[in-house]
């Protein structure tokens, strides 16, 4: 069966939406909650649309041959999933999905289990679902469809641009987060007793060592001890005031940096959705730690509401 560009456009769009529904249902069963799956923000998973479109165009003529339809679907959908997974990892540095723990996998991008599932799904679609989908497409008034379909593709393209732009800003955002975390850690150390008292203890040790080497200086020191003891209270008060002022300034600065870090983590609907939708990103070697912190931040904010 041959298809016009108009029909192929509707096939791509409809199966992208149906694929999104499948992903959401799968995530709901395994995670017990609604998750807006997919690369884009809208209710579409284009990889499903392209996958079914390729299978229909290539294999529908041989749909009466189950073996050819099954294994052909397995090869085509697996090749597409491998290609998309490879490109996304090269582009974003980490895997968005990973089948490394599944037997008979190739680089973690595809595995035998899911390849079989995709193949069975394609057989079901071609034999059972697709004829009804085509009846629906052909029932859409052409005068409506020729305007509605381009509009949907414009929305899809805009969604893709917005999503990609937000994700391209992630490395810069992660770098800013790391710099803020280091600054906060440094301020926390400055507020700790170690940095305040260790230098004092070290100087005392040096003084004792100096006195052992120069006993004559110890005698002179005793002459000044009485005056120092008389002024000790005044000196301690001044030191305490300076210490309290320094700690207060550090606390204020740390609070400011923590607020900036919280705002930075909380920005971006796209980043938040991607973090929650793709748990494998949290295990990535390059940005896994940053994604985990984003997830913790989102969940803590959600818990406070």
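^ structure tokens above, recovered residues below v
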């Amino acid at each position: 069966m041959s298809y016009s560009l108009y029909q192929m456009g509707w096939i791509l769009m409809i199966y992208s939406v149906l694929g999104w529904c499948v992903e959401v249902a799968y995530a709901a069963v395994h995670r017990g909650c609604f998750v807006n799956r997919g690369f884009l923000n809208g209710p579409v998973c284009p990889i499903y649309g392209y996958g079914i479109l390729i299978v229909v165009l290539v294999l529908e003529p041989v749909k009466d041959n189950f073996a050819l339809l099954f294994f052909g679907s397995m090869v085509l959908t697996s090749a597409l999933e491998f290609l998309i997974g490879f490109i996304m990892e090269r582009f974003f540095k980490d895997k968005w999905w990973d089948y490394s723990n599944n037997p008979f996998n190739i680089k973690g991008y595809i595995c035998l289990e899911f390849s079989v599932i995709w193949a069975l799904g394609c057989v079901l679609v071609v034999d059972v679902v697709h004829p009804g989908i085509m009846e629906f497409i052909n029932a859409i008034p052409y005068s409506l469809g020729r305007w509605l379909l381009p509009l949907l593709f414009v929305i899809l393209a805009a969604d893709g641009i917005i999503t990609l732009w937000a994700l391209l800003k992630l490395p810069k955002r992660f770098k800013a987060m790391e710099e803020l975390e280091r600054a906060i850690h440094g301020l926390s150390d400055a507020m700790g007793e170690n940095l305040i008292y260790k230098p004092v203890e070290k100087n005392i040790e040096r003084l004792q060592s100096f006195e052992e080497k120069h006993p004559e200086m110890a005698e002179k020191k005793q002459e000044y001890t009485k005056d120092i003891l008389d002024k000790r209270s005044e000196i301690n008060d001044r030191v305490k005031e300076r210490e309290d002022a320094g700690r207060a300034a550090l606390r204020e600065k740390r609070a400011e940096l923590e607020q900036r870090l919280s705002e930075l983590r909380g920005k971006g609907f796209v980043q938040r959705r991607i973090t929650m939708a793709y748990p494998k990103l949290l295990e990535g070697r390059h940005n896994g730690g940053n994604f985990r912190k984003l997830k913790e931040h989102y969940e803590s904010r959600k818990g406070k509401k």
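The CA atoms of residues 23 and 29 lie 10 Å apart.
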